[in-house]
Structures are given as C-alpha cells and as structure tokens.
C-alpha cells in the first residue's frame, strides 16, 4: 500500500526574504540610506550590544555599547581632525538613552576638558573643568554651569572658594589674593563683591606683597565714644514724667576701647568692661 506524504506548505517569497533581512546577532557592515554605516551586534533589527557607528556627514565615530538602537552604556565619541589627519577623541564615558549620563570626560580643545558627572548631555553634579587659559574649576555643576559650592583656582595661584549660581559667584565666599598676601571674605552677587572684609594673609610668603600691611582698625575719638556711652546710661536712669521712683545710687562700668590682634588678623573690640566707677545720681 503506497504511503502518501503531505507536501510542505509553501510560503510567499517575501516572507523568506524578510526572514533573511532580519538583523540579529553580529553583522558585518550595514549601510543606511543617508550613507551612515554600522558594524556590530543587533537585536530585533536594532543596534544592541557592542558596535561601531560611523556618520557620513560629520565623519564622527562612536565605539561602545548600544541598547535598542541608542547609545547606552560606556562608549567613546571621536571626530576627524583635519589638521593632523586623524581622529580626535571628544568624549569618553557613560551614556543613557543616546545622551551623556554618568561619569565622563569631554574634550573641548587641546588644553581644555571636563571630567565629572553628566545628565542628559549637560554637566550636572560634581566635576572639574580645566580651561585653556590655565584656570581650574572644581565643584558642583547644574545645567552645564557651575552651581553650588565650588573652587576656582586661577593661573597665577589666586583662588575663590564659595558659592555659585548660574556660572557666576553668588553668595558667601572667600577670595585668596596669594600673590599679594591678602584675603577677602564677603558676599557676592553676579560675580561682584558687594560687602566683606580684607585682611593680610600669608603676606610674608607672597611673591608680590603690598607696600604696606593693612593697619589695625582703631577708634578715632575714644573720649567721645566714652562720653556718648555714659550719656546713654545716664539717660536710662533719669526719672520719667509719670513720677516713677528714682532708682537707687548704684554702680556702673566705664566703657573703653581696646584693640587686639589675633592670628595676623585685625579684630576690634569696640568696648571693654573695666573697673566699676561711681556715678552720682540726683537726690
């Protein structure tokens, strides 16, 4: 008795072609319509895993991790250097959702770069910026600008330690003029010092100290200050118009100026309590 076999069901040719076109796993170079090309791993027709993307328009190259068609993980972005004829590294670090996120290093030029934290392609968090003129900023960033506590160290050695907002000095801070041996401590608004105190700081070791040290603060008219203080106390002890009983004869204390110097800084005590003296009161 003959055995009958069911012939295999045929499928349309386009299904077979579509299955062959599905990209999964490691693939050789795949070209896009605009000329971009990619070599690496795929998953469900999306770049996923390790791979290298080359953009035709700018010539940029990205080598690193991908996740569902976007740069995600650790990777390096480079651009061609027309002068040297080779590629120059622009960014090395972490990515998330096709944007710089996490710790990374961004090169803005041969001698200018940033190393620190990123969020959505912007410097946010802690970071250190090396400028081409030799200045260095280290501190907190927000929306690609210094924001929060930070220190700016200038090329000549002077530095500012304090608060920032929107890339400008805002709030309390200290500016060390180490080249002249002085320290200014005060309050800034949009990079302008509004108020504060200036004292000598390391003047003996400064390379270019000021001609004269900052003098001690003294009272110009100590006798006048004393008379004014005594008059104020006398006025407090005078009887009121309501017939209140006069206070008893008592003792008060004389106020005199005094100048002290502590740790190289001029500090002034306007008044010091000295020996008690008798003040006559009306009978």
Rg over C-alpha atoms, rounded to the nearest angstrom:
37 Å
Helix content: under 10%
The tally of helices reads 2
Straight-line N-to-C gap: 149 Å
Question: Which blocks of ≥5 consecutive residues have pLDDT under 50?
Answer: 243-283
Describe the global form.
elongated
- Describe the largest sheet: 15 strands, antiparallel
Average pLDDT figure: 81
Strand order of the largest sheet: 1-2-3-4-5-6-7-8-9-10-11-12-13-14-15
Order of helices and strands: HEEEEEEEEEEEEEEEHEE
CATH class of the largest domain: Mainly Beta
If classified by CATH, what would the architecture of the largest domain be?
A: Single Sheet
Query: How many strands in all?
Result: 17
**CATH topology label of the largest domain:** Histone H3 K4-specific methyltransferase SET7/9 N-terminal domain
Report the structural category: mainly beta
- Report the sheet-strand fraction: over 45%
Q: Into how many domains do the coordinates divide?
A: 3
